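Incident log, support desk, overnight shift.

02:14 A customer reports that sequence design results differ from what the structure should imply. Their input is reproduced verbatim below. On-call engineer (initials T.W.) acknowledged and began investigating.
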């Protein structure tokens, strides 16, 4: 029995099908069937039984599944670690960035990292912070930028932005007459929100409900600049981070501080505590700590 037998066994158990497992592994169905049969003969047990068009694990197969998962994971960690030693500073980093975060904070830092480590490939995936967090948790991304609070028991992190949400309205909106705008004052306003896979979508709705009303959501988008343009077109009001508001160039919107409550917008770079990180990912984290800086309250981007 070698590691390949266990990898093929796990794939059949995952798909409950020899055919689907073979497709996922890019081998023929007879090949994987023969390997599983050899494994069963070597162990002297039956691992799968047919139930209709599916195959299911036997009791013995369940026992092997529990052990094989750890063995294959340990083998993969070992090969990655050895690869780091052999390839030195070559590798790739899979990183998730919410669209409105990447443009403001990371291009310069990525350029400097690329100059220092030209052999490391940085693969970027743009999506909402909620989706990015889920992808890091699932192991599909090495590192991601998320909206705090997150799961400290699951992630290591570098906090680097502490900001708050501001109100974005068109240039002649009646709210501009108020000295101070509370969230309650927005009860009858049409809201322009980010989509559901953005953490701010849930955060804003939750704060509105805590204040005592259900927000009237007019439109949703994944682009902060489009949201601001809709506000300029008098389609509704938006709540955007102050950092993003400073990027708005249109003369048709005005920015109003939000009081009672102040809604924080705190960001952190996160990665799984219990997963092996490649040399490339560890080097990016070390580099990021240097570039983003550290204070007693957390790490912040240095200008």
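02:41 Re-run completed on a clean worker. Output:
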């Amino acid at each position: 029995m070698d590691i390949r037998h266990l990898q093929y066994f796990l794939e059949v158990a995952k798909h409950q099908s020899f055919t689907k497992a073979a497709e996922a592994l890019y081998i023929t169905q007879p090949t994987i069937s023969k390997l599983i049969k050899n494994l069963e003969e070597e162990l002297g047990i039956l691992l799968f039984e047919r139930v209709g068009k599916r195959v299911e694990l036997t009791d013995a197969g369940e026992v092997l599944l529990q052990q094989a998962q750890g063995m294959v994971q340990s083998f993969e960690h070992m090969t990655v670690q050895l690869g780091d030693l052999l390839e030195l500073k070559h590798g790739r980093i899979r990183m998730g960035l919410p669209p409105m975060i990447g443009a403001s904070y990371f291009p310069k830092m990525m350029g400097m990292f690329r100059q220092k480590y030209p052999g490391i490939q940085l693969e970027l995936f743009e999506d909402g912070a909620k989706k990015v967090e889920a992808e890091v948790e699932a192991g599909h991304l090495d590192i991601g930028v998320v909206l705090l609070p997150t799961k400290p028991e699951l992630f290591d992190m570098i906090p680097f932005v502490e900001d708050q949400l501001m109100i974005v309205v068109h240039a002649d909106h009646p709210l501009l007459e108020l000295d101070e705008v509370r969230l309650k004052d927005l009860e009858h306003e049409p809201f322009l929100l980010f989509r559901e896979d953005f953490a701010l979508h849930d955060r804003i709705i939750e704060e509105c409900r805590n204040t005592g009303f259900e927000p009237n959501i007019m439109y949703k988008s994944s682009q902060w600049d489009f949201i601001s343009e809709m506000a300029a077109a008098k389609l509704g009001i938006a709540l955007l981070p102050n950092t993003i508001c400073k990027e708005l160039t249109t003369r048709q919107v005005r920015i109003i501080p939000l009081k009672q409550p102040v809604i924080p917008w705190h960001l952190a770079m996160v990665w799984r505590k219990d997963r092996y990180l490649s040399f490339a990912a560890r080097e990016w984290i070390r580099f990021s700590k240097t570039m983003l800086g550290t204070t007693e309250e957390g790490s912040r981007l240095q200008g």
